[in-house]
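Long-time lurker, first post. I've been practising inverse folding by hand and with some scripts of my own, and I keep getting stuck on stretches where the structure tokens seem ambiguous. Below is the full token string for one chain I'm working on. Before anyone asks, I'm not after the true native sequence, just a reasonable design that respects the backbone. If someone could post their per-position residues I'd love to compare against what I wrote down in my notebook.
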């Protein structure tokens, strides 16, 4: 069984992370999606994640193969959901999940989400909130399979997004 490590990103990881994010931006475009086609995320997003201790990498044998931001209790767009969150307590929000194109199809987005759930529990936080574009069917399937519940719509950068929450045990 392959062992992956999930750790906070370091500034030295930035170039590799940005390469992985750029690959994901191109994949979304090739899929005909508008998601990530507006100049976001960008290198500054990654630098901010790292500076704020919110950037995380998934590694295999020390090689960075995946990335996400896991942010505690902060996503202003989530304050005005059209719908209703399951909880009003502390939460971790996951943004910018991306997998290196050489490692696609191995269920690694799910691995990252599981690691974020464990990280949340280590912080005594029992809610994870996420959102995705209406046309990101692969991510919606992952959320459904992992027990995330659709809660409504939120707006990020002027675009409606599907919002999900999972209450952790």
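-- Answer (accepted) --
I ran through it position by position. Result:
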């Amino acid at each position: 069984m392959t062992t992956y490590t999930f750790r906070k990103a370091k500034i030295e990881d930035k170039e590799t992370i940005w390469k992985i994010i750029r690959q994901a931006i191109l994949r979304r475009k090739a899929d005909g999606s508008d998601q990530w086609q507006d100049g976001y995320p960008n290198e500054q997003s990654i630098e901010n994640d790292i500076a704020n201790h919110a950037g995380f990498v998934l590694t295999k044998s020390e090689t960075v193969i995946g990335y996400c931001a896991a942010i505690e209790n902060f996503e202003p767009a989530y304050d005005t959901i059209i719908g209703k969150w399951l909880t009003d307590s502390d939460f971790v929000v996951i943004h910018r999940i991306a997998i290196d194109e050489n490692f696609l199809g191995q269920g690694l987005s799910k691995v990252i989400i599981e690691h974020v759930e464990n990280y949340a529990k280590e912080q005594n936080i029992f809610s994870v909130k996420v959102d995705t574009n209406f046309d990101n069917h692969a991510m919606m399937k992952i959320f459904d399979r992992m027990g995330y519940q659709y809660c409504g719509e939120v707006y990020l950068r002027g675009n409606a997004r599907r919002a999900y929450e999972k209450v952790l045990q």
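A couple of notes from the structure itself: The first helix runs from residue 14 to 30. The helical segments are 14-30, 43-51, 108-122, 137-145. Happy to go over any region you disagree with.
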